[in-house]
Amino acid sequence: MAHQQDDVSLNIPIRTASQHSLSSQSTQYSELLGEDISEYFYAIEDDVEQPGGQYRVTDSSEGFDIVETIGKRKRSEEEEPEDEPPRQIPRKATQASSLRPPSESFSERAATASSAQDQYTAATPGSAFSPARLTTGAVNYAEPRLHRPRPTPNSPTKKPSPRSTKPLGPTQSALTSSGSADSAHVALGPLRSSVLTLPDPLQPVRTGCVPPVGPWHASSTAATSVPPATRTASTPRILRSSTTSHAHHALHDTTTLDMHGPHVAAAHIAAPAAAAVSSVSTSYYAAAVPSDPSSTTISLSTSSAGSSSGSSNLPHSTTAQSNFAMPEGWQPPAPVIVGHAGKWQTIINGLPWGAQWEFARYINMGFKAESLDRGILLDSHLVNKNAEAAPEVTKIIERYAKAAKDATEKGEGVEDPFATAYEREQSVKLPWEELDREEDILSKHAYGAIGCNEDKEFLTQDPDWYGGRIHFTAQLHQDKGSSAFRFVLDRPVLGSSNRFARRFGSRRFVRVRVHKDLLRNAKELRDFFKQPFIIGGAVFRAFYAKEQNVFLFRTNERVIARDKEVLSVGPPPPTRSAHKEFSLMDFLNWHNSLEFNSEQTIVKWAARFALGLSNSVPGIRVQPMHVLFEDDIICDSFRGPGKPPSEMEMTDGCGFANRAVMRALKAKFPAWQEEPTAIQCRIGGAKGLLLVRHGLSDEQEEHPTVWLRPSQLKIKYTPHPLKEQILPSDADPAWLTIDVLRASRMNTPIRLSVETITNLAENGVPYSRFRELFQVDLEGRIDPLLKYDTPQDMLFLWYAISREGRVILSRMAREAVGIARAAGYVMEDNDDELDDEDGLNGLDEALKEQSSAWWEDPVSGQPSSLEETCLTLLDSGFTPKTCPVLEAKLREVAKKVVTTFQSKYRFIVPMSCSAFIVPDPFGVLGPNEIHVKCSRRAFVDIEGRSTDIVIGDVLVTRHPCKVPTDVQKVKAVFNAKLRHYLDVIVVSTQSHMYKGRRLDRHLASLTGGGDYDGDTMQVFWDPSIVNSFQEPDPEVSATEPPAVKACLVKDSTHVSTFLDAMRSVPEEYKVFTLQEYLLGALRGDFHVSTYSTWWEKSTYTQGYSHPETVFLAYMFCAVLDGLKTGVSVSPASFAEHRKKWQAGALAWKAQSEKPKDKRHKGDQFKSYNVKYLQRKGLLPFVMDILEKHVKEACDLQLGRIERYLGSGKDHPGACRRCKEDQVVCDSCDQDLSAPWLNARQRALQLRADGKGDMWDELVRIETHVKAMHQAAMDRKRSTSFRAGGSGEYDAGGSPVKNGGKESAPFTRLPIEKRQDILREQSKRFHAEPRDLRYFDDPTAIKASCAYFYDHRVKGWDRFPWDVATRALCEIKAKATGSSKTLSGDFYRWMAVSPVYLRQHMPKD
Q: 0.90 cut: is pTM over it?
């Protein structure tokens, strides 16, 4: 069977209206290929009457024409008259075409080829010749010409006849004497063609005797016509292919190429001479043609030749290479149309991107684009900036949609009066003004959004501004009963930023969230995301996947509309823009060049794209000469060769920065309390920590400087060794910017986790100590919430609730959208955080930051969170004893504390801390020594005193903590040379030791396989824990069991192998193949949580130190890093493990994982359907004991909460005693009822005097309040909503019938949906009634009426507070006799002073 010849496009990009002589093109080819091929091109001057003859490329409406200019050609009888337009130059007949009789038919010519040519597509030749055309970026010689080679210094200079088409040298005789020229030439196009002669070191070629081409093979006929897979309408790409011929190859053999025009490409392979020569590296070229007959792109393709004696001796491809083989007949995947406006899209493409996205979003939701009209689309509001155009799209769609609800129901009539109330929240949430600013800056300054441009004129008003903060997102859905996937586009919102978005602009990226249930369809998902996606007039392609997220990049391709609105993706249109638009391949190589990083495995190459997506904030920019190389400290027992294992890299992931860097960053982030000791960051192709370098000279501190270690450098940007150059002198400014993820900070105290508890208990810590710690922590958090007897107690209660809910930090995080983590506003629970090397674990949290969840309702003043609601009521004068709603909210706060304890087993160890772990910068610490110093006196020593340093024996660990050796006992010391290294944990760079024996590895590697690239370490110095801890033997569990590797499959294919295999394939297939790796997270074989659960089961049934438990722990670690290392579990091994460990459940865990919502309980939570695992022959398991104690303690605290705050079940019901005009019962708050009752009394007096207008207005108010109250009660009684849909409730909050669809109660709605419903309700409440004469501001009257009416008909309900919290609080504060009106901008940052609390702390 013949082998298919692979081709890869090689093209020269053409500048608009530029001139290219053939000689200048040879120079350009040489530059692109990296080798001199100028001898392959021939002087054009030989065919013109005077020197300077050349061709010019000119722009036209349809593409580019190549016409002859400068000089007058010699003409022959075969050529057209001189007065013909130059662009109509016909082709010359060539020797190659004359080898066939003109009468030979197309089918006859095709039959001349061997059967191997069946795999190729034959383009239909045109009946008449038409000038060749070029699409942007391709070169096509419309006028073929034969030129002689440039003579070598010792060769004769005799010129051939310009009209001669015979190749020179021995090739000619070989070609004509072999008798197989026809069989070696597959010419499927017009008979007239041109021949371009290129030397190539091929062996003798005869029918059925084919030279191998690198890892691929030529066809048995040696033909190079283009297979279907290489035919594409896409823009040609620049690729390089070369191979080394051996000594027996002929040096001066030639390959002749036919240039047939827009439909066909063929090649003549001439037989070589037998002269033996030394090794030569070269390439040969063949013409490649798009399969689309209407396309006129002709590109040059390259293939490399090797040696072979015949087809029977062809070498087989290796496994890695065969994975990259392009399947026969492969075609680029068709695009997915997400949202396109059909015939109106061309006009929409001229609108701001925000408007384009909104049109696409509504069309994606079902809006029919054909209902639009030109007049609407050309409206002046749409052609303005995003801030005006994007909201205008919504108005247009609403008018066209003709929604069932009228304007009043939708609240349009009541929205304007409250527009200013939402300005603060919208300024944080709405992206349109920010998008305008970003787009405006990027249109003028390509690097303007990167940040660190404080010296630029365009940022004089806001020097710290940076871009990339607008999130364009979508969700992947799969409808029931359908196998097809579809996008649902989201509203863009403001959020965090990353390097990619800052460098290229927010509009070039879309994040698609994939529900975990869809990950089961691994192959279908990957195939789906390998397709291009059309959103509006833009083409997006997937370039990375992480967990449940897929990221798309907007390429420079264009959307082509065919007949009947069939859309396809084509090459980029001609552009005169100064800013380069990127193809996906351009973007991939910009971040992680395949050529410069060819030594990486392709899996790691793909994983490096996470670095550009890390949630980060631009810090400062350094110069390339100030990015220096610093060698890693390697364990002295390493003898090589090769790269040392990570556990022997004693500084793995941690470099240096001088104080100039840290001072500049402190000035950039004023929220940082101290100048940081270390920062987790990204710079260039490096990741990890930068540790401050003290003790430098003034000269070394003159400029911000960083020192990067090889272990940090994940991406190379130059061909030079890293020791010589890390970043090029002309490095992209984005590579020179220090992107800050977070700064060093000391967290103390910290909480234990289940894994740490298990480890400590299995290593000798008594169970009783955990019970004591749990009891103390739980009581310490509940007690302050249940003490509110005196006014002073209210202050302590306020402070306790504020701390419990982290209220102030939450408010800061909401307003500092996108920078909360870097600024330190987000209190991350590092105890639970697994390896977050790429900083992507916080992506979902970043989206939460960008949403408006937990903002208070600016109209009603109702806070969204439980804790903030309690604070608002407390500081207005309410108490839990007299305010049922405060009592209920406080009860939920307290119960939330208890349920968290019961479900997570998280409790504080007072003598503990956690911080970044860093290697000793001076080498002053001995083996097994650490240095822990805080920037404030926040530690508690064993005597109960406050201190800033830890001294003595301590236990250290990090997560994951799954084997006995993951907790280590070391000694904390103080060293004067390290006194300035605050808020970090400094560890020794010497080998760790166990009982005097060197382990030849660093400490971090023994604690969950950690390193120093941003990992946090936990330190415990509680004597009751440390002294009882028994150090485990590292021989048992500190080394990965050999059985682990036997269960793993590793893709160790290197980028270099991929490049070799991809030399002769089209770019579309190269991208298609790369996406298999870039989308590796969608493979579905990373069973992280599964192996963690199996480890828990083995720990319980077989013991913590059992070999199989240790094995499962290392399996967990292997699959955890699988996406980065290329490791996956073999299906057979996984099936074996699943068979053994899938069945059964852990009783202690099942209790904590019961769903809170009883409606969602399934049979799996019923005891008679669950088989609980048994622990036999082992000591009692700590979690069994702790689970029972926790349940008892939590039940006790829940009982206390109910005694103090009620159960919530004893609802008082409607008040039968209070009358319409009088408060009678004690449970009614007279302060809140007074405004309504007083107004009612005055109105009655006026009506008695014949003035009934005020009474009429009160009747209108009361009628409105009752109607709103009834709607709220209807909503509450309804327990259903349309799951996952829109319009669950009407504008008044009344439920919408769902037609029997899946339902859930209102309280189970996402917080944003609940807020929207309640806010719409409060807007309607405050908007009506209008035109009142007796009440300039009826807010207090309506609030009082709502409270009193609700008390009489319900006893108490949340309705009055949902619609009028602020008004009710103002009434109460004024009624206390001493109140002060405070602006909301001030109130948000007010807190009870800890100094006051310390002074008035009750004494026990």
A: no
